[in-house]
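Lecture 7 notes. Example A: sequence first, then its structure tokens.
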Amino acid sequence: MELLKVIDREWFKQRLTGVVLCVMIAFAVLSARLFYLQVVEGSHFRRLSQYNSIRIHDIAPLRGLIYDRNGSLMAENRPSFNLSIIPRDAAPLEKTIEKLSVYIDVPKEDLMALVYKKKSKRLSFRPVLLKPDISRNALAAIEAHRFELPGVVVAIKPIRHYLQHEYAAHLLGYLGEINLKELKSGRYPECKSGDLVGKFGLEKACEPLLRGKMGGKQVEVNARGQVVRVLNTVDSITGVNINLTIDNKLQKKAVELLKGFAGAVAVLDTSNGGILALVSSPSFDPNSFVSGLTHAQWRELDSNPQMPMQNKSVQGLYPPASTYKIVTAIAGLEKGAIDEHTVFHCSGSHKFGNRVYRCWKRTGHGKVNVVAALAQSCDVFFYQVGQKLGVDILAEYARACGLGSATGINLDNEPQGLIPTALWKKRRVGIPWQRGETLSVAIGQGYNLVTPLQMAVLVSAVGNRGTLYRPRIIKNIISADGTVIDGNNNSVDNITHKAIIEEFAKFGQIEIIGKLPGSSRTLELVRKGLWEVVNGRRGTARTVKIKGIEVSGKTGTAQVFSRKKNTPSDRRDKKRQPMHLRDHAWFVAYAPSDAPRIAVSVIVEHGEHGSSTAAPIAREMIKCYLGEEIAASAVNGP
């Protein structure tokens, strides 16, 4: 019996020891877990706890406004209502999404796909954008059923609105959601996924000026994610306003005149390079990009053979045709190949080697000097000038006239154009330059390629007697503190915002980029020839005459593909030719002739003749801008 008692005590002690050991192990595990949660992961769970009650809401800045030279508003901001959901607060999530889909007329599956796509990349208490810029009707439905939609948030955010719609689309550009490549580039340090940034045109070029600085507010929320109170606010900083050199009335006029055509118009102030109008046709509505294009809408724009997404005035490359004869005339006069008394006979053709090069006028122009050759656009005269000079000298003078290099306007993807040389052809094609090719180059055909803006800069320089200005879009900018910065004062020194200074240096200052490579006598002869184009008895653009305003200019007809010129069969073929194979029509001009204020460059794709298609557009542009002088002339008489 005594032995049994001993055995029982030992057994009980063993059991007690085991129980105590288990309890100690349990406490050790619990203590370790508490240590891990409170010490190792303490900061993480502290942050989650804070976000359960305190959250940061962004305050988007107002984007800077854009005005024309006369203070007419071109780009403003309007309120948009962005619909988001906070997954953590939206329980039960699927039921909430199902109700929401009815109110905004979006399939439940599409909304769930958005939530699950972004849920892995975001904490569950961060809002997921479901639909930007919802309609007023959708907003009213959501507000009416607010208590049925936990976790649903409607944020008011300023969004861009372009008052001119398609009238200034290529100039102003548009906004779009920032992509991953842009985020990683470092050029948008304050932006995050979902933000809108400039994607094209002036909006992209002046992004640092226009964007402003993001603000924020610290808010306390309840268990349903609803804001209880605002704890702290940091105001956003509005972007810089910009006044353009553009004349809104002239811009609209150019769009109306180009309606139904593919082409471009560039208009400059001859005294400082300020751009008065810059139009590419066909155009698009930039507001559709801000709201978001559908795939079908984008495909329609992208596949359009007339390329509405290309800024033809800056990016379009075309053979300059007879407008290039300005360069050939300057080169010939300066190099002594011709002078004001040199006369060549035009019989309608010029034989060089074993080939006959024809003039546009089949019966010929007879005896012509340089002034008459410019006025009548005589090909034979300039064939012979080009033959005397050679391609490399022509290229030298063309580059000195601003062709073959970007103008420096700093809009998207401005090309240099192409001014060929013998070396260029050898490297590019692998065969030597043929002397006969120089004849084509001398009249602006062959490999020559220029942009409408380059030709506007050139004709502007001829008009102002030799000064090549960098085209500029900005007249002045107004900083956040109300300081006006323009090219005529030193107020830029008082601005501390580095981006403003840098962007102003690029866009706001008047800059001379060169001088035409011709003496005053050479330029006067060329100017006389361009005056004769419009005002002479045999000029090619006599229909451009404006009562009270003398206009000087040059027509051009650029071949789209090579053919024998002015043969009877060729003239018959032209009438049956498909539109896309017809010649491009050029006209460049300045006015008034003696003291120019405006220079115009017009190209109409497949317009065939500069005198009949492009020149009337330039005429109306000049009338629109110089209307007061015309009115005064009408009152006082010729």
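Example B, a different protein, same format:
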Amino acid sequence: MTLAVPLEHEDLPRSSVAVIDAPRRATAWWPLALTGVGALAVAVGLAIVDALPVGVVADDSFYVILARALASGEGYRYLNVPGHPAGTHFPPGYPALLALLSFVVPAFPASVVAFKALNAVFLAIASVCVARLLRVRVGLGAGWSIAVGAVTAVSVPLLILGNLVLSELCFLAIALALLLALERLVDEPAPLSRVLALGAAIAACALVRTHGVVLVPAAAIALGARRRWRDAALLAVAAVVCLLPWQLWTARHGGTLPSPLLGMYDSYATWWIGGVRTLGVSMIPATVMKTTSETSTMLAVLFSPMRGSAAHAVTLVALATLTVAACAAAWRRAPVTLLFLAGYLAIVVLWPFQTARFVWTIWPLLLALVAIGGWTALGRPAWRAPLRLALGAAFVWVAVGYAAYEMRGIRGRWWSSIPRANTPRIAMAVRSVAANTSTSEVVATDYEGAVYLYTGRQALPIITLTPAQYLRDYSPRENAMEGLLPLLDAYPVRTVVAGAGKAFDAAQFLAAQSPTRLSLRERIDGGGIFTVQPR
């Protein structure tokens, strides 16, 4: 119902005019504030972009390689591997986006700056969407919601991801926008076309990062709880149908690579199932214990205002308290968001891989839980005073801790810490390969994706990636016998360029065997260049 106000309020008493205008004044700044949050995110996202090379975390180079393959008409294939096997590990959404962008930006390597700058747009979308999600769906105050959006725009974990050519921020932007739409779908009946469109959009999100598939059961459960079975079924069917071509592609082309390449080049499901077959079902509880420990430690460090085990324990208790309160406050108004978050984190703890990147990918939602928990301490007068006091103290504790972390990160420019640390190693590998191999050679080396992109040589890894390696450190013998040696047997590698650490130790192990497969040709900074001996 709309209240009609006479022109200039001439027929109303002054007190009535004030009552009518107060809500307008209170919310008139909201669109401007959202615009400001988006502008802040774009400005910060562009300010941190650097020209350091791609390949510093392996995945970023593979995204660029797959994008190059698509743009050049080669298909969705790994150009760095002999035979150009089909890409079945990374969903094609983000590489396809980079491929499109590559047609309008300078050629590689200058295109890397444009790829990184694109993340500023995704950061802005995520910042605005999380503010709108909190305000429109959860009912947080406008000031609280804008504050979370602004913190998202300058959040160091997201800036670290944003300064790399990774799919995380693209996924985050799509997922948050979808959560807004799905929460509305749960509340309001929608035409068939909209339900199907949202199912297709979920599939698009999952084709950027596979975790997006969690949106299907999250929305379906929320719809089912309201007895909207038809909409739940149509949403799921639309998502499955749109994902079916990718699943058929991975089923047809998966499992054809040598075992050392499965971890980084084959499908996620095949890799995880292979780990269970090798290690037994004990892999699952062992993984959960380690991922839970890693995640808890990371959260304690990022949110604690003081160091030490006691302070970290208090931080974890405070975060748990705020999370429980936030879920209680938001469950009725944002069930899809909470179900998505629960399903996403369940995958994280079951996946035998370092958890930081996975957790940072949904970082604004974790910040939102903290904010909702703090808001309940101030905005829920019906809650008992001792509970509100405890929530208020927990919020202040973690807010001070996170503010301190942000200040340290901004002063230390942590968003470029990974490229700064790994660029010298990439440069050494690229120089060594370029100087010691011909353009037609296949090499085994550290940072194989970067070596291919910057030298044109087809390149393979030295160290394999298996679930067992996550759960315990492999010995040089295991790295050599399970990683490097099978690759030397499977591909015509003539030169191995190994940097310091596990790669060099594995190469050294093979060089010390009789009959030898490798001979040291030259020492380089911390590592060595090896010649492969014929069998």
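Note on Example B: Residues 280-411 form one domain. Residues 1-26 have pLDDT under 50 and may be disordered.
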